[in-house]
Design a protein that fits this description.
338 residues; alpha+beta; 2 domains; 9 helices; 23% strand
Length: 338
């Protein structure tokens, strides 16, 4: 029985038993759902990293509230990548920055919404956090799911090194019908938590794994279909194989679909105009690559290089990405790079 079912069983049983009879709670329902701090402590996660994740989770709760109560309109400004901002982009960015300042654990932080790093000089730590506070925000006014993506490094000396250097954890939140927070800690797996009615993130799926092969595909940047014969061949292959298309235009829900189903491949290649693709290494691709490798998946660029081996030359550098089921990713990138 997955934790999800148990959580549902517990809720139904408690409603039933308390509304009709005072039945004894069966043993398997006795243990309360595990909070994410409790679970991470049991897994031996460093207390400072747990504290950082606690503050990011608080920021996620405030972003969730803002989405459900906030203004989804544009603000007439652009982010550091020249993309038009919605009000929630600006608010989400500030909410996360505030929480990271409160943690007192960060030296500086980098946001997709800011040109440079923000010096927060925390007295208790020198961690570096890079984040996309509200990925896919242009989808909010359509009521499609969006997300936040975070990467945590042991210090801020990330430039001119492989992006994996010093990376301790990565996590992402999905603001959909359920508010979920997926957390990966180096060497300790990938786990999903769900925000419950009393504002606590509780464990719903521990040690998530991604199967090596897949029946789902999420083909991003189809502009490249008409420009790159290899991407056309790859997409035609997926269609000929009658794979199930699952693509929303939001990287976070699209990748979360792969984790939730346990298999899939997401692609976002380069095109003639965006010769390094659209997605950012630090704020999107590296954290997601970390999560997927901890779940037994893979994340490669279209030349066949491992995303996490990419040398960081600029905070806002972009990279093509193929991510998901390991064998599928390797086979598809072989087709792209041959
Ligand atoms: P396109 C959202 O704007 C985003 O950054 C990712 O979440 C998503 O995968 C990608 O861009 C979608 O790009 O070109 O399909 O709009």
């Amino acid at each position: 029985m997955t934790l999800n079912n148990r959580f549902y069983q517990e809720k139904c049983y408690k409603d039933f038993s308390t509304s009709y009879f005072s039945l004894p709670t069966p043993y398997f329902l006795m243990s309360a759902p595990l909070s994410f701090n409790h679970f991470l402590r049991e897994r031996g996660v460093d207390s400072n990293v747990r504290s950082l994740l606690y503050h990011l989770a608080r920021g996620v709760k405030y972003i969730n509230f803002s989405i459900r109560a906030g203004n989804t309109g544009k603000v007439g400004s652009e982010n550091s990548s020249g993309e038009e901002q919605v009000a929630l982009d600006v608010l989400a960015d500030q909410l996360i920055l505030d929480e990271l300042r409160k943690s007192e654990l960060c030296d500086c932080v980098a946001s997709e919404e800011q040109v440079a790093c923000t010096d927060v000089s925390g007295p208790r730590g020198k961690y570096f956090v890079a984040y996309d506070p509200l990925d896919g925000s242009s989808l909010i006014d359509t009521n499609l799911a969006v997300g936040s993506i975070f990467g945590i490094w042991e210090n801020s000396e990330v430039l001119e090194k492989p992006v994996e250097n010093g990376m301790l954890a990565a996590c992402f939140a999905v603001y959909g019908p359920r508010i979920t927070f997926v957390i990966s800690i180096k060497g300790k797996g990938t786990h999903e938590f769900e925000l419950n009615d009393v504002g606590e993130f509780i464990l719903t799926e521990a040690d998530i794994t991604v199967a090596p092969e897949t029946k789902y595909f999420a083909p991003g940047n189809l502009r490249a279909y008409a420009q790159d014969p290899k991407y056309k061949a790859v997409t035609d292959f997926w269609l000929a194989e009658q794979r199930k298309l699952r693509y929303s235009g939001g990287m976070v829900p699209d990748l979360n679909h792969i984790l939730a189903k346990g298999n899939g491949i997401f692609s976002y290649p380069a095109d003639n105009e965006n010769t390094n693709g659209k997605l950012r290494l630090l704020f999107e691709c590296a954290p997601m690559a970390f999560v997927f490798e901890e779940a037994g998946g893979a994340a490669l660029n279209q030349a066949g290089g491992r995303i996490l081996d990419t040398i960081v030359t600029d905070y806002h550098q972009r990279t093509p990405i193929f991510i998901g089921s390991k064998k599928e990713v390797e086979d598809i990138v072989q087709m792209m790079s041959s």
